[in-house]
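User: Run a structure prediction on this.
Assistant: Running it now.
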Amino acid sequence: MSLLTGSANAVKYTLFGFNLIFLITGIILIAVGAGVGAVYTGYELFLAGKFFSIPTFLIVIGAFIIVISFFGCWGALKENYCLVLSFSIMLAIIFILELAAGISGYVLRSDASDLINKSLLASISEYNTDTQSPVTSLWDNVQRDFDCCGVSSFSDWDKKFPTGDLPISCCTVPVGAVGSFNCWSNVTSVDVRHPDGCLDGFSNYIAAHAVSLGAAGVVIAILQFFGVIFACYIAREIKIRNGITGFI
C-alpha cells in the first residue's frame, strides 16, 4: 500500500516518468558522444586531446545515467527512502558533471580555431611526397573534402615547396583529364586551384560538432535539475510518513 497520498503520490509517478526520460537521455548522450568522437577520430592527427576527452566524458556520464535511473524507478515505486535519497545525490552529481561537460563543449568551440591553426601549421612540414604518411594522407583528404589549400591560403605551402609546386589535392582535377596533372601556386593553376585556406572551413566543421556536445550536456542537465527537485521532495515525504529521523 502506498504511503504517499495526494500531490506527493502524483509527484512519485512523475518522478518515475522522469526516470524513463533519464534513461533515454543517457542513451542520447552516449550516441552524441560516440558520434562526435567518431567524426573527430578521422582527423585525430590535427586535433588536440581535449577534442576527444569531452565526447568520452559524455559517454561515461550517459552510461552512469542509465544505471542510476533504475535506482530512481525502483525507489519511487517501492517508496524506499534510502534508494530515492541515493538517487537524488547521484543525480545532483551527474547534473554538475553534465553542466561542466556542456560548458566545456562551448569553450572548445571558441578555442577550436586557435588549436587547429597550430596543428595545421606544424604538420605542413611533415607532408611527404615520397611516402604515404598518415599526415600526408590526412592533408590530402582535408583539402579535397573542404575544397581548400594550405592553412590560410595556398602560399602556406611555399616553405615546403619553394619551387611553386602544390599538392595535387590543392586543385580540382578537370573532368576527363588524361596523363599527368600539375598543381601550381602561380597563375597557371588559378582556374583549378582552391582559393581558400583550410582553417576556416575545417575549424567551423569541428566547432559545430563541439556545439552539439555543449548543447546535449546543458539541455539534459536542465532536465535533470527538475529530477533532483522531484526526488528530494519524494524522499522528504517518505521520510515523514515512515517517521524516519536524522539524515538516513
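The two ends are 22 Å apart (CA to CA).
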